[in-house]
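Renewal narrative, Specific Aim 1. Our central claim is that a sequence can be written position by position from structural information alone. The example that follows is taken directly from our test logs and has not been curated for this report. It begins with the structure tokens describing the chain, in the order in which they were read.
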């Protein structure tokens, strides 16, 4: 049996397909992830989450982002570009989790600063197993902690 470990971070999942989101959540938990998981279903929600209009400083230092590329409004490439281009969010680890496996898309994500790229497998069992393994990996991941003076 897997011993759950809660590294001090929140998983933020940007996924517009409710079925995929539920499957990802369930299999991350089966992989031992007991961290909080925040679901955002659009690119706009993701941008608002990380860059609220209020301009209030947000502390997302203890966050791992799981990002789908194919979103109905603002695509994952733009979200990734914005996150990695901003001093306040550039250190957030980003795992791109998407259906595409096109080499140009993979290269573009790494050029924009993603930390890992994973293609969603086709088929329930393969998808479930891949996400469970990702969950196992997340149980040992350590995220950078950015102090307030590093934001300045």
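The sequence written for that structure reads:
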């Amino acid at each position: 049996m897997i011993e759950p470990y809660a590294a001090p971070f929140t998983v933020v999942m940007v996924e517009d397909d409710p079925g995929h989101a539920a499957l990802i959540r369930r299999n991350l938990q089966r992989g031992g992830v007991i961290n909080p998981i925040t679901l955002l279903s659009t690119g706009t929600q993701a941008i608002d989450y990380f860059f609220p209009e209020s301009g209030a400083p947000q502390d997302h230092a203890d966050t791992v982002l799981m990002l789908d590329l194919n979103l109905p409004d603002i695509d994952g490439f733009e979200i990734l570009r914005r996150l990695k281009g901003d001093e306040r969010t550039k250190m957030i680890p980003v795992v791109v989790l998407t259906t595409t496996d096109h080499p140009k898309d993979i290269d573009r994500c790494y050029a924009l600063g993603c930390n890992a790229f994973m293609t969603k497998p086709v088929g329930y069992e393969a998808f479930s197993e891949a996400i469970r393994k990702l969950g196992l990996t997340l149980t040992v991941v350590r995220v950078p902690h950015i102090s307030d003076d590093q934001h300045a």
